[in-house]
Write a structure and sequence with these properties.
Shape: globular
Structural class: alpha/beta
Membrane topology: Multi-pass membrane protein
Mean pLDDT: 81
Number of helices: 18
Keywords: Electron transport, Glycoprotein, Ion transport, Membrane, Oxidoreductase, Transmembrane, Transmembrane helix, Transport
Number of strands: 13
Helix content: 40-55%
Low-confidence stretches: 1-13, 68-82, 394-410, 555-573, 582-601
Strand content: 5-15%
Protein name: Ferric reductase-like transmembrane component/FAD binding protein
Strand order of the largest sheet: 11-10-9-8-7-12-13
Organism: Ephemerocybe angulata
Subcellular location: Membrane
């Protein structure tokens, strides 16, 4: 009589261990090799940034330079920036196709291909040469092998941020951290569900033994990490997300070590990456005196004193203000101006300058605190001035009325506070000085990023006399805002930069375009040199096309002919303010897709900037909400698609998303 066969046996801990360990090592070798490839192709940029002195600037944080020297414009012995050859132009055009971004995807084609390859690697290492029904441990071991990746790409002071070159801060690497975490969750789901199935098939209790109980507990903690990491929670409850992230990961590490001793070798590298982050963060922390200046109900300027070195334009810091009862919160803010050696801005104090837009509870509380404190200080100053005026009137009747007003009209009060700064982090991934044409496009508070870049490149070209071989000739600075009053946020800085660019010693052409989407208070437009204000939300692609198109009088000439035209001043009204241009929206025509209907754009850029021909390169930096940066990426990719290989030269793109 034949036997019906033995009942299924739950695999022991050592089943398939040798094969699983081999695929753990294969997975580690694969992702380390891919990372090494990206480090290799990033080495030329790292080498160039090291020679220019910006690669490791700020490694030990922001500092005060006691031996700062005055700048000297260099008129001889200038280096010449290398222009890309034909092969580099072809590679640049091919890689620009990876910049296309789908609406709602949040990632471009290049990132999508990379993430797809990563998930395919994880799945293949789980299923290849594995009978998952009998061997549930393979998926769990591959999940453990991803722990170093999660921490390597999550820490703010990761070694990768330094080795990949400027512009590859934690905010850029965080995407891999998120998807590696999802890869861990996928492996744990497969591992846990198959173990539960095996226990149900053999009628073995799921809970009771230490191994099963700690496994269920570790999986529950991982579910908490995943559920609290979704976008709505990060956006609206960031403090809760951040604290739960740390606490639950510590608990997860402890629990998974009790679950299996095989987790220990994979936890040590993760802890080492986190320990390095904590060490470098301690070295970068600074407590400084600062001044709060509320511009209006939507913007607060912060001037941090005694900070003159240790950062570059385009970077950001994490700020903690010791006031308003929110000492435990820190938030990232872009550095508004270039370092003192380079900056053209004299309206702001030397040091770190930040622009804080009211976007949530913390920024609103900061603005309210600054506004209310300023009102109190003004009342105190008014009372003091009244008493002093009486005293002056009795002792000096010869003072004229005008001189009295000049003596008593002090600048608006500033609110002194203490702040803690952590950084700098991030930065721009392209060197604007390598490109003859530059477009800086920002939306709302995103101008804090592009304004710092504008200040830096104008200072390098005019103030420092192109001592590092900068070739930039034409700059278009575009800023989209909701109301005219927002121009006053950064109007003093824009005036200083525009004045420097328009000086007699300057060979740089700068044009500023402000696009207002709400028609209200047009009298608030400040008199910024070479600035046009347009009541429209423009298409970034139209702005790009306008920038690389010859002026109206030269439209029939070759694009590559270098025919310089005199610098054309912006039109101004009788009061000296820029003329506002109202544009109309074109209606859809028969057979034309609605997505192709653009605003009839007034070609002011091509007629405001001198034409120097093409081939010298084009740099595009965009900052603001995700919709704006996505549009900028697609616009540059589209422009590369329709242009010839050598028409534009090398094209560089950097986007900065102002969102969680």
């Amino acid at each position: 009589m034949s036997s019906a066969g033995a009942p299924p046996v739950v695999p022991t801990h050592s089943s398939y261990a040798e094969t699983d360990l081999k695929y753990q090592h294969k997975f580690t070798i694969a992702w380390a090799s891919i990372l090494g490839f990206f480090l290799l192709i990033s080495f030329p940029r790292l080498y160039a940034s090291t020679r220019s002195g910006i690669a490791f600037k700020g490694f030990f944080g922001i500092s005060e330079s006691w031996d700062a020297k005055q700048y000297h414009a260099l008129s001889v012995s200038r280096k010449t920036a290398r222009k890309g050859g034909r092969i580099e132009a072809i590679l640049n055009k091919a890689s620009s196709m990876l910049w296309w971004t789908l609406p709602g995807a949040g990632v471009n084609v290049g990132q999508l291909l990379f993430l797809g390859g990563y998930i395919a690697l994880v799945v293949s290492c789980i299923v290849v040469d594995a009978s998952l029904v009998k061997n549930a441990n393979r998926a769990g071991r591959i999940a453990l092998a991803q722990l170093p990746i999660v921490f390597l790409f999550a820490t703010k002071n990761s070694a990768l941020s330094l080795l990949l070159g400027p512009g590859n801060g934690y905010e850029k690497l965080n995407l891999v951290h998120k998807w590696a975490g999802r890869g861990i969750f996928l492996g744990c789901v497969i591992h846990g569900s198959l173990w539960i199935k095996n226990h149900l098939d053999t009628e073995t209790p799921i809970l009771g033994q230490d191994k099963e109980t700690t496994g269920i507990a570790a999986f529950a903690l991982l579910c908490i990490i995943v559920l609290t990491s979704v976008l709505p929670v990060r956006r609206w409850f960031y403090g809760a997300f951040y604290n739960l992230h740390i606490v639950t990961f510590v608990a997860f590490f402890i629990t998974v070590c009790y679950h299996t001793p095989e987790a220990v070798p994979w936890i040590f590298p993760a802890l080492a990456f986190y320990g390095l982050d904590i060490l470098l963060r301690m070295l970068r922390l600074r407590i400084k005196d600062a001044l709060l200046v509320p511009c209006d109900k939507q913007m607060t300027l912060i001037h941090v004193q005694d900070c003159t070195d240790g950062w570059t334009a385009g970077q950001h810091i994490r700020l903690r203000v010791f006031s308003s009862g929110r000492v435990l919160e820190s938030h990232p803010f872009s550095l508004l101006t270039a370092p003192p050696e380079t900056t053209c801005v004299t309206a702001f104090p030397q040091g770190v300058n930040l622009g804080v837009r009211v976007m949530g509870d913390w920024t609103k509380a900061l603005n309210d605190y600054a506004t209310q404190t300023v009102e109190v200080l003004r009342k105190q100053e008014d009372e003091a001035c009244l008493d002093e005026k009486k005293q002056v009137a009795m002792t000096s009747v010869e003072l004229a009325g005008a001189s009295k007003r000049a003596a008593f009209n002090a600048p608006p009060p500033e609110v002194p506070v203490q702040v803690m700064i952590d950084g700098p982090y991030g930065g721009c991934s392209i060197d604007l000085g390598r490109y003859e044409n530059v477009l800086l496009f920002a939306g709302g508070a995103g101008a804090t990023f592009t304004l710092g870049l504008l200040d830096d490149i104008v200072g390098r070209c005019v103030k420092l006399g192109r001592r590092n071989g900068e070739v930039t000739k034409r700059i278009e600075f575009a800023w989209c805002i909701r109301s005219f009053g927002a121009i006053d946020w950064f109007a003093p800085a824009l005036m200083d930069i525009a004045t420097m660019a328009a000086s007699a010693s300057s060979d740089l052409s700068l044009h500023i375009s402000v696009y207002v989407t709400c028609l209200c208070n047009p009298e608030a437009v400040p008199p910024i040199p070479n600035c046009d204000v347009t009541i429209v939300r423009p298409s970034i692609y139209r702005v790009l096309i306008d920038l690389v198109t010859p002026p109206t009088g030269l439209a029939s000439s070759s694009y590559n002919d270098i025919q310089e035209i005199p610098r054309l001043p912006s039109e101004t009204a009788d009061n000296g303010r820029p003329v506002m241009v109202a544009t109309q929206t074109s209606s859809a025509t028969d057979g034309k897709d609605e997505t192709e209907v653009d605003v009839v754009f007034d070609p002011s850029v091509r007629n405001r900037l001198p034409w120097i021909g093409l081939g010298g390169g084009l740099a595009v930096c965009a900052s603001g909400p995700e919709s704006l940066t996505r549009e900028a990426s697609n616009a540059v990719a589209r422009l590369q698609l329709v242009s010839g290989v050598r028409d534009l030269g090398i094209v560089g793109l950097h986007t900065e998303v102002f969102a969680l």
